[in-house]
């Protein structure tokens, strides 16, 4: 039913992770929690890809066949995990980058220059459309 697929796609883009804490001062604990990305890691492993939190692994993810788009229930969760994984790679490899929580509880990556990157939003868009590629988002943040 076409109208259900259209409705699901609209609903899928609205889902994201929210983390609620008293503050975001426990960067190590917050980073470990957000780095889990269990669904993404399981799907990547099914294609023989081990996610090692490196920029090269983002490139490998960009090359995966987008089978998650066939399942409207999995798509938002996969995209959410992709965004959290993108954030994990940025935080672990870009000097001065760290996790920050918006007042809504949405985890974003704050760069040393003070710019916030909505990595979950980027992951959801990548999962749904394939653009922008995760490596492109990473490249733009590492240049900032």
Task: Outline the secondary-structure elements.
Layout: H1 2-14, H2 27-34, H3 38-46, H4 55-62, H5 75-93, E1 98-101, E2 107-110, E3 116-117, H6 119-129, H7 134-143
Antiparallel strand pairs: 1-2, 2-3
Helix pairs in contact: 5-6, 5-7
Descriptive overview:
With 144 residues, this protein is mostly helical. It has helices spanning 2-14, 27-34, 38-46, 55-62, 75-93, 119-129, 134-143; strands at residues 98-101, 107-110, 116-117. It has a 3-stranded antiparallel sheet with strand order 1-2-3, covered by helices on one side. A hairpin with a 5-residue loop joins strand 2 and strand 3 (116-117). Helix 5 (75-93) crosses helix 6 (119-129) and helix 5 (75-93) packs parallel to helix 7 (134-143). The protein is globular and about 35 Å long. 29% of the residues are buried.
Oligomer: single chain
Counting H and I runs of at least 4 residues, what is the number of helices?
A: 7
Q: How do the SSEs run, as a string of H and E?
A: HHHHHEEEHH
Query: Which spans have pLDDT < 50 for at least 5 consecutive residues?
Result: 10-16
Q: Kindly report how far apart the N and C termini lie.
A: 44 Å
Number of E strands? 3
Structural class: mainly alpha
Strand percentage lies at 5-15%
Query: What is the typical, i.e. mean, pLDDT?
Result: 87
Largest sheet: 3 strands, antiparallel
- Side by side, the strands of the main sheet go 1-2-3
Rg of Cα set: 15 Å
Shape: globular
Q: Kindly state the percentage of residues in helix.
A: 40-55%
């Amino acid at each position: 039913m076409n109208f259900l697929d259209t409705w699901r796609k609209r609903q899928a883009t609205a889902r994201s992770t929210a983390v609620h804490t008293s503050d975001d001062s426990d960067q190590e604990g917050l980073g470990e929690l957000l780095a889990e990305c269990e669904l993404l890691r399981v799907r990547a492993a099914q294609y023989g890809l081990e996610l090692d939190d490196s920029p090269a692994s983002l490139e490998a993810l960009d090359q995966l066949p987008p089978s998650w788009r066939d399942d409207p229930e999995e798509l938002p969760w996969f995209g959410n995990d992709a965004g959290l994984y993108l954030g994990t790679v940025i935080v672990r490899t870009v000097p001065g980058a760290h996790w920050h929580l918006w007042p809504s509880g949405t985890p974003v990556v704050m760069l040393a220059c003070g710019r916030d990157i909505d990595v979950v939003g980027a992951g959801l868009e990548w999962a749904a459309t394939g653009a922008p590629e995760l490596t492109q988002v990473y490249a733009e943040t590492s240049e900032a």
